[in-house]
Amino acid sequence: MSSKSTEALSKGIDSSTKNPILFVPSLVPIVIQLLFLLLAYVVFPIQYNILGLVSGVIPNPWLIWGGYFIAALFGFIASCMVVDMINDKINERQINLNKSFGVVINRLGTLILAAVIAAVCFITFVLIPVALFIITIAMVEGTGAIDSTKKAVDFVIKNLGEVIVFIVIVIVADIILSFGFGLIPFVGAYIGAIISWIAGVVFTVSSVHFYLALRKTSATAPPTPPPPPQPST
């Protein structure tokens, strides 16, 4: 298993637990999703009756997916804020919630365009590794959407093995956590949603550690020595 991947995840957990302010931006999407889940499961569930033989109540899928979509919009802003906050911390600057919010709002157009490019890359499946680092690079480097995409492609190509291991660990861990807690009777959907957002913050923090560590390694790598001179004939 890649040492860089596990090291980044370890640092992500450590940074998150030592800096609980990193979770503050995600409180808004958490509350939104929980509210819509409550409406879907308790207030406006759907009753069904099949030929008078089978009847019951199921949660309203429109409210579930609608709540997830709205929460994801606010979650995008929260995720960008977390990247900026942990980047400040890693570079020994003080974490400032208001400053990071201002940075995200001022660059919102660029970040939305970067997110659209990332979504297109994600759909292709092959470019999922690129998609997952475009926003991180855009926030850390302060680059535009196109330059961030180019840097993400270059970063993934140079560190393909490390990147694949990191992404597999993150995806598997997120599925296990959210699905596992989601199986708890009655409150599983609510707990699963909360755990998923918390894990998302940890993974976002880890991705910044991961990117900065490998960027530094690439930057400090010694140049390839020139070939030895050919003997004269």
Question: What's the structural blueprint in terms of helices and strands?
Answer:
Layout: H1 3-18, H2 27-43, E1 46-50, E2 54-58, H3 61-90, H4 97-106, H5 108-123, H6 128-141, H7 145-158, H8 160-182, H9 188-220
Antiparallel strand pairs: 1-2
Helix pairs in contact: 1-8, 1-9, 2-3, 2-9, 3-4, 3-6, 3-9, 5-6, 5-7, 6-7, 6-9, 8-9
Characterise the protein shown here.
A two-stranded antiparallel ribbon has the order 1-2. The chain has one domain. With 233 residues, it is mainly α. The chain has helices at residues 3-18, 27-43, 61-90, 97-106, 108-123, 128-141, 145-158, 160-182, 188-220, and strands at 46-50, 54-58. The protein has 9 helices and 2 strands, in the order ααββααααααα. It starts with a helix and ends in a 13-residue tail after the last helix. α1 packs across α8, α2 runs antiparallel to α3 (61-90) and α3 (61-90) packs parallel to α9 (188-220). Helix content is 74%, strand content 4%.
Quick gist of this model?
The protein is mostly helical. It has helices at residues 3-18, 27-43, 61-90, 97-106, 108-123, 128-141, 145-158, 160-182, 188-220; strands at residues 46-50, 54-58. It has one domain (3-218).
Question: What is the gyration radius calculated from CA atoms?
Answer: 21 Å
How many helices? The count is 9
Q: What is the beta-strand fraction?
A: under 5%
- Counting DSSP E segments of at least 2 residues, the number of strands comes to 2
Q: Tell me, briefly, the overall form.
A: globular
Helix content: over 70%
What structural class results from the helix and strand content? Answer: mainly alpha
Ranges where pLDDT stays below 50 over 5 or more residues in a row are: none
- Euclidean distance between termini CA atoms: 50 Å
Number of domains: 1
Mean pLDDT: 88
Largest β-sheet summary: 2 strands, antiparallel
Main sheet: strand order: 1-2
H/E element sequence: HHEEHHHHHHH
